[in-house]
Amino acid sequence: MKATVRHKRGAKAWLLLLVVLILNAGCGGKSTEEYSEESVNGNGRGKLCVYLYGDFSESKAKMICKELKNYFPEVELMEGRLALPEEGYVPNRNRYRGTALLNDLKKYRNGNVVLGLTDKVICTSNEISSTFGIMGVSYLNSGLCVSSSIIPKSGKKQTDENFIKLTLHELGHAYGLPHCPDQKCYMVDAEHRMKFPHTTGFCEKCSAYLKSAGVTPD
User: Fold this and answer.
1) How many CA atoms lie within 13 A of 154 on its CB side?
2) Long-range pairs for 42-47 at CB < 8 Å and ≥24 separation?
3) Full residue range of the structural domain in which residue 141 is found
4) pLDDT, tens digit, for every residue of 131-175?
5) How far apart are CA 164 and CA 143, in angstroms?
6) Each residue of 73-112: pLDDT tens digit?
7) Any domain includes 218
8) Does residue 217 form part of some domain?
9) Could you tell me if residue 134 is inside a domain?
10) What is the layout of strands, in order, in the sheet containing 89-90?
């Protein structure tokens, strides 16, 4: 009987932790929508599969993959290109809803972590706007994320360095990391600003988490 009670309490504790992590991840384009399918915990990690949307530069994608191999044990740039989901397009803003892209990537999950790269503006709904422009989006601990090379406010492309940092930030969320209070950490909350130029890497706490998840950040 005591063992059963402890088991129930343990299950409740893990459920509470999951809810807290999901809520902490919601900001600046991180979806607070709960992901109910296979998470990246346990044996659901697999390799990191990178997909290109539309006419995203293949040479830039190869550069990104080369950098990601410093962190992830296996990275593969997938052949072919994905069409941006029409149901996610917002014509009056000429941008795509981030959740539509994430839902589109679900079919490629198959136990792997999936990253989508696009050079189109993506958006989310928040307290500021129903089509607020963002640079990246992810479901916490889902193995799914998308990075955009475009800065919504200016319409200009990010530098390669900031784009890599953004992508690592989104992948951190995909592996279960919430935002981090360390302003130098890749997992810092952007708070609707461009903070990546001031970040230097994953902090000690975030690095420890990722190592436990099978990722080996510098």
Assistant:
1) 8
2) 43/111, 44/111, 44/143, 45/111, 45/112, 45/113, 45/143, 45/213, 45/214, 46/110, 46/111, 46/112, 46/113, 46/143, 47/72, 47/73, 47/74, 47/75, 47/76, 47/112, 47/113
3) 2-212
4) 999 999 999 999 999 999 999 988 999 999 999 999 999 999 999
5) 17
6) 899 999 999 999 999 999 999 999 999 999 999 999 988 9
7) no
8) no
9) yes
10) 89-90, 95-97, 122-124, 132-134
| 96: β partners | 89, 122
pTM: 0.81
> Residue 53 maps to which CATH number?
3.40.390.10
Per-residue pLDDT of 14-67, as tens digits, reads: 443 333 333 333 344 444 344 444 455 544 467 999 999 999 999 999 999 999
pLDDT tens profile 179-210: 999 999 999 998 777 888 899 999 999 999 99
**Torsion angle in degrees (nearest 10) through CA of 76, 78, 83, 89:** 0
Q: What distances in angstroms separate CA 187 from CA 133, 183, 184, one per listed residue?
A: 19, 8, 8
Q: How many domains does the chain have?
A: 1
